[in-house]
Design a protein that fits this description.
Shape: globular
Helix content: 10-25%
Largest sheet: 5 strands, antiparallel
Distance between the termini: 83 Å
Length: about 160
């Protein structure tokens, strides 16, 4: 059994996939091509309940994954290998932990062999506090952002 075929902790095939991101780019053909290019990564992550997205970075597409119930972000880029990091919650952006890094290893890498990457993400998911089972939001979680003040309409006295 290869690492791609081994069952992963946190993977439940009977659970529905986490939803697609909720933004206008999902209708863009270039975004759809990038999404299809990374389906071998996003599908197993979505099976684990992570909401995923792909965005163009400085010089390559990046895969983002948000653990359920956490405003932490796992960033996964494919540039000569995989790099997965975990950011601290929004209140403390001072901590970023590297979960997996195959970008520095020598030799050719098969970017479709995501087994070791997924094992590292599974280890993170096991360490994170579990949230009660609730429906997934329609997009990436946004917390801690204050609502804008209500618009005030000026009145004129006559």
């Amino acid at each position: 059994m290869t690492s791609q075929q081994e069952p992963m902790a946190g993977c439940a095939s009977d659970r529905p996939l986490a939803p697609l991101p909720d933004h206008r780019n999902v209708l863009d053909p270039s975004w759809q091509r990038a999404w299809a290019r990374f389906a071998h990564v996003t599908t197993p992550l979505r099976e684990r309940g992570l909401i995923c997205d792909v965005q163009y970075g400085l010089d390559d597409w990046l895969v983002y994954a948000w653990p359920p119930g956490h405003d932490s972000v796992v960033l996964i880029g494919a540039r000569g290998g995989w790099l997965a990091t975990h950011e601290a919650p929004a209140e403390d952006r001072t901590s970023m932990t590297v979960l997996y890094d195959s970008t520095a290893s020598s030799g050719s890498r098969d970017l479709h062999d995501v087994g070791p990457l997924l094992f590292a993400i599974d280890a993170l998911l096991i360490r994170l506090p579990r949230e009660p089972s609730t429906p997934h939001p329609a997009g990436p979680p946004v917390t801690g952002v204050p609502a804008p003040p209500p618009a005030v309409r000026a009145t004129r006295s006559r």
